[in-house]
Amino acid sequence: xxxDDPDAFRHRLSIKHLKxxxxxxxxxxxxxxxxxxxxxxxxxxxxxxxxxMFESVLTFxxxxxxxxxxxxxxxxIFFTIEYLLRLWVSEDPKKYAFSFLGIIDxxxxxxxxxxxxxxxxxxxxxxxAIRLLRVFRILKLVRYVxxxxxxxxxxxxxxxxxxxxxxxxxTLVIILGTLMYMIEGGEHGFDSIPRSIYWAVVTLTTVxxxxxxxxxxxxxxVASMIMILGYSxxxxxxxxxxxxxxxxxxxESRMCSRCxxxxxxxxxxFCHKCGERIVLDA
Length: 282
What we know:
67% of the residues lie in helices and 0% in strands. By secondary structure, it is mainly alpha-helical.
């Protein structure tokens, strides 16, 4: 039932109008003010990251520590207001809050407040760099967004195979680490199975820090086999993901522009995952 109070009605109307204006500025991509706000937001993100990096340098921290501290709080308050406004104007605040960018926006402001309790946690603010992903939305880099969707589709399609592969690798390094512990023993640096497993991981991935090295002939022979095995293992996930990405490229014409899903029926006109209309490439 409408209120008989004209002042209350005008107040609600003004609040609704203000909300629409704020929504157009914050979420508007095509509007002039929306683009200007996004550019200002990106500049603020980059500037805050530069301030955080300078604060980690001892000489800058000693000379300009108080100034950098004030700058950090100014940016944090700005990002906090922006986050609250996004919640206010969103049609579904919970959906935005639990979306990828919503979570990143929240994580970008928490460390500063957390630093009041935990010293040094403000350096976690580098997570703000992830917010630079908004540049794709601003600059309309559709080609790059589509490329990212293809990579995502390939990774999603190969996740089961990658999981099986990683499980086999973990099992292998446990066996190899235990074997080297039995061969070399503590006198050669392999003083525990976990430390020997660490050596197996470093060797299998061909990193080779050199902090632990086998000294017996048998140990060196096993290490040589692990190094050769490492080269062949590295190629496996590349082949798995590459094959799935090739398949995704073939299905690109039926890729959902919103979520990147490719596995649609030939007669499908809407994405079965998010409901977006599928636009077929010419």
